[in-house]
Amino acid sequence: MKAHKLFLIAMLCFLFHTKSQAQDVIVTYGNLMFLKGQTDVNIEFDYDNLRVGEFTEDMYLKQKRKEFRKAPDADAWEAKWEADKAGKFDAKFTKQFNLGTLRIKLVATAGNNDAQYVMQVKTIRIEPGYYGTGMRRDTYVDVEITFVDTAHLDKPVCIIKAYRILGTTELTKDMSDQQIKIANAYGVIADKLSSMIVAECTKKIKQPKEVKEDKPTHPEKAKKEEKPEKEEKPKKEPKEKKGKNGDDGTEPEQE
After folding, report:
1. Distance separating alpha carbons of residues 99 and 184, to the nearest angstrom
2. pTM for this prediction
3. What are phi and psi of 248, to 5 degrees?
4. Which domain holds residue 117?
5. How many domains does the chain have?
């Protein structure tokens, strides 16, 4: 009984840790301003060195094949896995990206060699996820997106990383289809990326305020404007008061 409780506590901690890890799409190098005024971009998808869950893709496929009793069924599943990369994952990303950039009239198209820039979408990890009694792991993908100028393919213009982007579905039979949930994760990344591009390309740059310069005046006008300094008038000396008996106010001597 005690061991059962400890197991449940451990599972709850695991689920909380999985949920609490941040999922985000962030620019790690450069900026997206170079797309301002562009009408098209070439898009490429790369699944080389892909990891699925904790395994390499080859190891994952071998493990999955063991789940099928008949080889033809395993072959069909593996073929579907490979076809879904272009048919579901790439298609979902491209569709959502183009919907998001309608406002600035930017269109991403695979194989568009006339475009000035290439958007390279490289998938680093796909977590298919699983859902069972008492156990669950969310479906998510890690993707790195690099923009390069066709004139300098070895020099990235901008690098964007998407971490642990979850893929979900409606409460329908699609809940059991991992490929649909993976595709939806690519759609979320495309939505976030297109929103970032639109925000950057429509951002208004604040112009510095103009400093008004004093205009030089005409010399003659300047002379008129100059007011002559007032000359100080000399102060008048107080007059001596004359007395009744004499000029200086003193009494005359008697003879």
Report:
1. 15
2. 0.71
3. -95, 5
4. 21-201
5. 1
